[in-house]
Structures are given as C-alpha cells and as structure tokens.
Specification:
Number of helices: 5
CATH topology of the largest domain: Rossmann fold
Number of strands: 14
Strand content: 15-25%
Largest sheet: 6 strands, mixed
Length: about 375
Amino acid sequence: MFGFSDETYLDVASGNGGNGCVSFRREKYVERGGPDGGDGGRGGDVVFVVKNNIRTLGHLKLTRSFRAENGHNGSSSRCYGANGNDIEIDVPPGTIIKNAETGELIKDLTGVDRWVFLTGGKGGQGNWHFRTASRQTPRFAQTGEKGTEIRIGVELLVIADIGFVGYPNAGKSTLLNVLSNARSKVASYPFTTKIPQLGMMRYGDHDIVLADIPGIIEGASEGSGMGFKFLRHISRTTGLAFLIDLSDDRYLTAYEKLSDELEAYSPELLDKPKVIIGTHLDEEEKDAPKHLEELKAKYPDIKVIGLCVYLEQGVDEVKQSFIKMVGDNENETLETLRNNAAGGFSAHVDNDAYYPENPEEVK
C-alpha cells in the first residue's frame, strides 16, 4: 500500500492522428489505376476511470507522464491506418482535475465512472480523396491532427457523510474504531492520526461513511500543524462532529476555536449540520460530567452528547445523531427534487372520468 497522497500533477497527452498515404495503383492488366492512398488512424484518447478499490493518488506519483498511442499512417490500396490505443488513468472516487497553471477546475469526477479528458487527433486523408477530373494524379495527402498535451493537477477530496473535527487526542480515532470497521492508531500522544481515515458505520439498514481528519490546532487555516493540509476533506461531508475532550482545560473554548479555523478556511463549512460530542466522560476526577453540563448550557441550539466509549455511554445517541443528520439531508434533497418541475413529473386527477362497474362488459 502506498502512503496516503491526496494531490499530484500529471503530464498527459492524447495521440496524434496518423498521416494519409500517397499511393498509386499500378498493376498489370488493370486500367485506370489512379491514386489509392488510405487514411491515417485516429490518435488515442486520455481517459480517467474511477475505481472504487483505490483510496489514494499514491500510484500516480510513480508515473507522472501519460501519453496515448499515435494513430498509424494510411497505406496503399485504400487501407486505413489503425487507431491509436487509449490511455486510461485510474483514480479514486472524489477526484477533481484542475489546470496546473491557473488552478481552474476542469472536472469533478464525483459520480462519474469514466470520462474522456483529451480526444486524439483525427487521421489525415489519403490522396485518393483528392482526385478530380482535372487532377487525376494528386501527389499529396493530408497530415494527421496533433494531439493535445497539458499539465494538470489531480486532487482527492475524501467523500464521507460525517467528518470528525477536534484537537489532537480528542478521541476521534477511538470513536471511529468503535463505530466502524476502521482500525486507526490510538495512542496517548498528539497527532497519532497523520492521514485521513475512513470507516463505514452500519446501524440497522443505514450505512454511513465516517472520516477522521488529523487533529486541528489553532492557526491550522494559516498552515500550522497538519490540519490545513486535510481541511479540504471535510468540504464534501454532510455533517460535522466536533469532538471536545471534557478533561481538557480548553473544553469551553474548543468549539469556538475550531469553528474559527473552519470559517477561516471556508465559511460554508459552518453551514453544515453539526453535533458536539464531549469525550472522556469517565474522567470524574477532572469534573468531566460537570463540564458536559456547562457545554450544554453554553450551546443550547446545538446538540451536545456526552461520550465514554469504554463504558458505552452515549454511543447509541451518537449513532442516532449521525443517522438523523444524513437522513435530514437526504429528505431535503428529495424535497428539492419534488419542488423542481424540471426534475420530476406532474399529474392531475380527471374528475369527469367514467368508471364502469364491470369493465369486461365494456367493448
């Protein structure tokens, strides 16, 4: 397994079209030979293929240049040149393509299985196409079109339903391991999670993808710590879970500090549904239960849940909260589609319709 890589650059080029052929038919006992040069083949395309079994862009850092095959030249007897083979680039779900020079977004591959990025050049026509009554021996043919070459930036935005946000050692990895099949490293020192971790939480008939983002510290939006590097991965989440250590002295200011970092990076992040989870509820000697009540009193408009995974306190409540956030988002999307006439259908009741008692008697 390659190390986690969420951005890289690639030099990609589609294939050149093959040249048309200049040829004349000269056979014994065959009158009116004339030109018979065939057309060149089409150049290969550059195609991005989204593979669900790929999680990072690490494989693209080994090979940064991708070139499709050129089309083959035409030949005599009006034979066409072979088309060039396409080059396929495998990427994980959530990949976006940008112009490496301008940073302009070219394509978001979310929900796409296969996308042709660059098409190959057309093949040139052979001299057979250029014959006329006054020009019966054309000694020229058309050259194939050149392919397109460009340097692009490839970035990965993790696709998840709920993103975990919190200071280092707030209990994000522990919660992810308890709720899903993930096996993140858990230790007593900061930044044990160095790369985003994904896990699938199954609760009844619901499957929810959880993302553990490496710990955010104050100044992360300006590049401090590792949070800035991975903040982009919560941009696509449906909701956010703010994990706050109730045994930490910063328990009352943690949510505000974390929100400030998210707002500095992207104000839209604060518009997402959110829940505050107070972890380490079992630390009674540090007044963790009291701190939980203070959090609830300070943020009455936000759901605050106390959690101790070792005693299984609050685990079910956290699950239900996640399901509600994802379900509310799905219902809102469905309601939007229903209200959009272009995205659905309309129907009306015909009150004047006639319904016979015995339809079989009606001929």
